[in-house]
Design brief:
The structure holds two protein chains of two kinds. Chain A starts with a helix and ends in a 12-residue tail after the last helix. By secondary structure, chain A is mainly α. Chain A is globular. Chain A has 28 helices and no strands. In chain B, helix 2 crosses helix 3 and helix 2 packs parallel to helix 4. In chain B, strand 18 and strand 19 form a beta hairpin. Chain B is 24% helix and 36% strand. Chain B is of the alpha+beta class. The chains are: A mainly alpha, B alpha+beta. The interface between A and B is large, with 32 and 41 residues.
Amino acid sequence: MTTSSYEQPFPRPRRSLIPAWALQWGTWLLVCTLIVGPFIPLFYASVRDRPLYEKGGVLTLQPYRDLFGDSAFWHAWGNTLVFAGLTTLMAVAGGALVAILCTRTDLAGRSWFGRLILLPILLPSLGMVLGWLVVWGPGGYLTQTFHDRFHLPTIAIDTIPGMALVEASRLLPIAFLTCQAALSRADSSLEDAARSAGAKPDRVLFNITIPMLRPALLNAGTLIFTLSIAALGIPLLLGTSNNIVFVSSYLYNTWTNASTPDPGSVSAGAVMMLLVATLLLLLRNKLLGAEARFVSVGGKSGRQALLRLRAWRWPLAAILAFYLVGTTLVPVVGLATMSFVVVLTPLVPPWELATWDHWRVLWEDDAFRRSIENSAIIAVVGAVLTTAFVALATLVAHRSGFRFRGTLPFLMLYPRATPGIIIGIGFFWAYLLTGAFGDFMRGSIWGIMLAFCVRNLPLAYIVMYPTLARIGEELDRAGRAAGAGWWRTSRTIVLPLLKPAIFASFILLFVEIINDYDPAVFLVKPGTEVMGATMLAQFIQGLVGPVSALALVQVVITVVVLAVGAKVFKLGVAGGEHSA
Amino acid sequence: MPEIHVQNLVKQFGDQRALDDVTFKVEEGELFTLLGPSGCGKSTTLMSIAGFQNPEAGRIAVGDDTFFDATGKVAVPAERRNLGIVFQSYAVWPHMTVFDNLAFPLKVRKLKRAAIRTRVLEVLELVEMTPYEKRYPHQLSGGQQQRVALARALVYSPSVLLLDEPFSNLDAKLRERARAWVKELQRTLGLTTIFVTHDQDEALSMSDRVAVMSAGEVQQIGTPEEIYRHPTNRFVAEFVGRVNLIEGHVSGSAGGGVVVDVADSPHQLTVHDGAGASGNVTVAVRPEAVTVMRLDDRSLNGTNTWEADVTTVAFLGDHYEYEVNAGPLALTVQSSRRVEGDRIRVHIPPDACAVVE
């Protein structure tokens, strides 16, 4: 080729039809509306003397006065804080221990444990609480067996420590994942250096490895504390018999049993809870920054000398297996059995009480059948929309020159810290105030879907961001230099490279949305039931059998979708990024 | 191929001034190098030209097109600047074949399929990558990926070519070949090119002109010879190649230069440079410019010829390196000759000296 043929004049690239700024502004505004929007009417409702839909209200602090004047509210806060504190202690200690055992020792079957330990956080939380209740509750199958046959006490899960144990078993994977990430990120030469200096492996573990975990423990602890404050199913299902009330169940009860509908004090309580959750999130952001400073970059993991457990290798594995069986397998088996028997009791063999009635209810009762259908639709559509939207917003946040991009990461993580029940109340008020749109949303499953999507959107961001961060920025710059605009570069270069994370996000969101319930408890109406909300409502009505069957449906869907997702999309650990 | 004007660029990152009044002009068809240590502002300058960063002040123009003008609030987005750029990581899109990588800029320009095919094959041939058309980047070596990156930057006949440390990920052998090849291509095509590197060998061997940068400022602009032989300040002298810095005081003038009394030493140094300088000065002398000879060798005598004690001699393959003390003055000398003896004579040619301060 000669010089002259090289210098062909090519047309200049044309401007794209939708300008980048319009897309970026649109995305940002939508994120703001969806995430901040619902809290504005909530706040407004908390400073009015009557519900928002009644005319002629005046601004007042009366709802706060009512709330703060109620000693039951403060008692509920006391219970909640003790519960959250105990949960955090147990989950963090347990998670760290399992993480160290699985990454730094030669524990038997450690890679299997590393995967199985994640299951509790992915399984439907309400269904699992029900499983615990059926097996380990005051009248539960194993509780009775131990009492009557062996005269042995069991853990009373209807007390605050017992409830904390149930919640800790669900949230332990968060601590596990955070510690595991910190351990595998840590520069192993730090440990090698200690060994060359003459320290034995166990000494290295206690003097180097565990101290390095401190920021990870703090970070996981803050998240677990925040999440356990919001627990709703546990106090409603386990606490009611002993009259143990948490803030979330206090608000729920006040709302459902109020003499005047939609009392302002519930909104005031929600605002207060939101404030606490926000402060915890800010604290956690600070801790995350501190953690980054602790990270020793560049270390290659995987060649550390493993701590030899010797005689403890199998006993410790047995204890861990026993823990997993007791906290995960037994409740699921309990649910399954419960769904096929009239009563679950050790006095009569289950097969003599076998029945299909509970499952028949699922088919024949409209509320049950509809809630399965609705949940499935909401989960598929919601997961698709949320994944697409979060992918776009993540690109704006990290791969654009958009002026306010810096606000997006915080905004997108915010719902993670917000109790689901508060998101529910926020959307309830928001729909009431938005005229025809709100009416449509209130009357259809899409209103619940939107609340679920907003609640779970942080997970999509948490899954996508690390992958995006690994895609070199020079790749999209090369696209821009080649003449493609922001959107075209994103569409043809960045998004295709983000595909694995997009699929992972879809699977995770599907599972989370289909199992979610607490944002829906204030939004459901006849016709728009979803599985979790139906379970809660029907359990309170006393229909334990059909509710168990429904919970089992959730468990089966979850396990199948995760297994298929892991297989088809080769997701390493579907919930792997849960911890961030 | 138009020329590139960069005028008075200023860029601040927090408290740190990344670019401080950076000004230069790249002539048509020239290979112009920005050379400096990491953090000197060379990449920031290049990214500002490419449109990925916007300075706070200054102006950037290619030919008659103003790309950036802080006063006129002009900032043409990167995709409309029509520049070719090769990144340090090559940034070859991993999910596209070699062909698709090259076709992308042409698709963006709405060329017809047949025209795209013809042009892509033409440019692949130019970079000798025709057999790899259907490969994915992970199936290519580093050197091949670099060729693809260059081809992709050239496929749409950009007005100028920007190279951001393109050789730093290649091993030493390959790097030398790639340098020669890129230089040859650049010259054949007559591409106006800005090249960013921290490697002085690369800068000297490839460039038509070099701008040495430090702490956000341009220290000196000149041809490789000028930069090497006549550094205008201490930073340039020390950064580009090795150097002996001799401190002293100007005591008189001689033949278009000055005579310097070397500090703490009886020696006088005649320098054919720095006319008009006075007071305390620093003189830069390259180690290979100094001549060594046996003590009884009188072929060079008089001006700038001193006796010296040899402290170490190292054999480095193609030359010897001497550390000598001429009185209190320590010098490093490179010579292809092995001169025996603990005491030798050294000669500093007056025209090999540059007054840098």
